[in-house]
Amino acid sequence: MTLATSLPFALEREAQQVATDLNEATLRVVDRHEEIITEFPPLPYTTATLHEDATRAFNWTISQVTQLAQTLFETGLITYPRTDSVRVAEEAIEAGKQVITALYGKESLGHLVGENFPQPVETDSDLEAHEAIRPTSPNRHPDDLLEGNAEAHVLYRLIWARFLASLMNPARYRVITLALEAEL
Asked: pTM for the complete prediction?
C-alpha cells in the first residue's frame, strides 16, 4: 500500500486513519531525493514588508504596526518608518557587521555585505531620500530595551533581527524527501 501524504489532509479523521495504519505497518524506502537549498537573506524592511511580516506574525492591524513604528521612530530607535527604499547607509552596514561579528562570529557575515543593497540614487524624490527601516544603532540589542511598550519592543526586535539577517550569509540546508511504501 502506498500512501501519498504530500498534501495536507482535508479531514482530521483521514489523517488519524493514516496514522493508525502506519502504526501497524512496516515502512520501506522506495525513493530518496536530497538537495541543498540556499536561501539568501532578506533585504531590510520597507513599509510594505514590515506591515506584511508584523500583521502575519503578531496578528496586528496595519494601523497598529504603523503607530508602533512611529513610536519607535520618535524615540530614536529606528529610521523613518514610511519608505519604499531598501538602501542602507554605509555606517549602518559597518555597525551591523560589528554586531554580527560580536554575536555570531565573523564567519556569519555575508560575503557581499553592502553589495546586496541598492546604492543611493541622486534624485529629488522623497522615496529615495530615506533609508530602509532599520535600527538607528544596531548595537542596541532588543533585550537591553525591555522597559516601556511591550508591543513596540516586539516590533523593534523584528526590525533589528531583519536588519542583521540582511547582512549575514545565506542559509544553507539539506532537504531530504523520502517516498515510503507501507507493508500492512
From this structure: 0.75
